[in-house]
Write a structure and sequence with these properties.
globular, Aspartate Aminotransferase, domain 2, 14 strands, eight-stranded mixed beta sheet, alpha/beta, 413 residues, Aspartate Aminotransferase, domain 1, 16% strand
């Protein structure tokens, strides 16, 4: 998100968005305080959040095209089967295992086609990131992350005193790694390169030829690869050119991340995992086990329920997949001719490029104020130009279709 710690400890770093003139909702500023500077984020709501709160207070209805919580999106869950998974009497006993209980790791391993000894359980993908940052980086070291992408990495890295450097994804008949920019970002403080596969929100997958080049770069520079694969099961169509998972990489130390939140549509269950592979993975697992043993954060009940919950994932995944494809087809057929729909390859989101008749913030606030439609601006995800709108394809079809119609009819001027 464009934030960089200031070289002057007494200076404030004012952050603007990557592609326009709106100020970011959060600002890192250094000042004298009894608290850690890792938490010096200004939490004042941005203008969009302030307007949204006002609209909600007024009682006006909102067509929310940002819904990303599957448990609130109208899907049919096998409630009895899910609840019965938590009836195991073993849940009454505490049997801590730093890497995770064997039966849970075996279930995860079977879902990914890997060996259980390569699996380490966490409470979430966010925790997986923090443990990997602890494993790989000392304070002041750097992780390279893609741009655009989900606005989470700098928060997590900052809490570990790790710096984030961004490498751009170029948009030309799809999304591609800008190799010259990526390679120029590597320094002697770089410890890992992070990929989101498929990317959130662009829905673009890493291609096999890109993976080959990425692996060679990381092997030559002694860097790890971190692959966020939470949406990997939600490809919109098959494509042999894609690298759908990095779990089989052998040329560089690699960590693949996923969890129940997306795989099974159960974000409230709080179970994630790391799959380690490549040279040095055995030592990496031993060291991560020390980290995990320090926290022992994964609960026994969710680990014992995990095999059943993973078995139940298939039907819900079909529902989500059908919803996403139907909403995408509607948007494809009904978006305004002047709006450019960037075709996603997978994931739960769609990206519209709209005319720069107004800034992204003006587009989003105009749609909310005049049409009652809520979308997200591209600068939330660090798009490097304007104007982009991000829509969740997980949204209930009736809400999505009416919202898409209003966006197509809306003109900001």
């Amino acid at each position: 998100m464009g934030r960089r710690p200031s070289p002057d400890p007494g200076a404030a770093l004012i952050v603007t968005d990557g592609g326009g003139d709106q100020q970011k909702p959060l600002i890192w500023c250094n000042h004298d305080s009894m608290f850690s500077h890792r938490l010096d984020w200004n939490l004042r709501p941005n203008p969009i959040a302030s307007m949204l709160a006002g609209v909600r207070r007024s009682g006006r209805g909102i067509l929310d095209l940002t819904e990303s919580n599957p448990t609130l999106a109208g899907f049919s869950y096998p409630a009895d089967e899910i609840l019965s998974a938590f009836q195991n009497p073993r849940m009454l006993f505490y049997e801590p295992s730093p890497r995770g209980l064997r039966q849970a790791r075996e279930a995860v391993a079977a879902a990914h086609g890997v060996e259980p000894d390569r699996i380490l359980l966490t409470t979430s993908t966010s925790e997986s990131y923090t443990w990997l940052f602890k494993l790989l980086a000392d304070p002041g070291d750097e992780i390279l992350v893609p741009r655009p992408s989900y606005p989470l990495f700098e928060f997590l890295a900052g809490l570990e005193s790790v710096r984030v450097r961004q490498y751009p994804l170029a948009c030309h008949e799809g999304w591609w790694i800008d190799w010259a920019s990526l390679e120029s970002q590597v320094t002697d403080r770089t410890r890992a390169i992070l990929v989101v596969n498929p990317n959130n929100p662009t829905g673009s997958y890493l291609k096999r030829h890109e993976l080959y080049r990425l692996t060679a770069l990381c092997a030559a520079q002694g860097l790890a690869i971190i692959s966020d694969e939470v949406f990997a099961d939600f490809a919109h169509a098959s494509d042999e050119s894609r690298a759908t998972s990095l779990a089989g990489v052998t040329g560089a130390l690699t960590f693949c991340l996923s969890g129940l939140s997306k795989v099974a549509g159960l974000p409230q269950m709080k179970l994630g995992w790391i799959i380690a592979g490549g040279p040095g993975s055995r030592e990496a697992m031993e060291r991560m086990e020390l980290i995990a043993d320090t926290y022992l954060s994964v609960s026994t009940p969710i680990q014992l329920a995990a095999p059943t919950l993973l078995d139940l994932r298939h039907e819900l995944r079909k529902q989500i997949h059908r919803r996403v494809l139907d909403n995408l087809a509607f948007l494809r057929a009904n978006h305004h001719p002047a709006h450019d729909l960037l075709e996603p390859e997978g994931g739960w989101y769609a990206v519209l490029r709209v005319p720069r008749t107004g800034s992204e913030q003006e587009w989003v606030m105009g749609l909310l104020e005049r049409e009652g439609v809520l979308v997200q601006p591209g600068y939330f995800y660090d798009f490097d130009s304007e104007a982009w709108l991000i829509l969740s394809l997980l949204t209930h079809p009736a809400v999505f279709q009416e919202g898409a119609r209003r966006i197509a009819a809306f003109s900001y001027n």
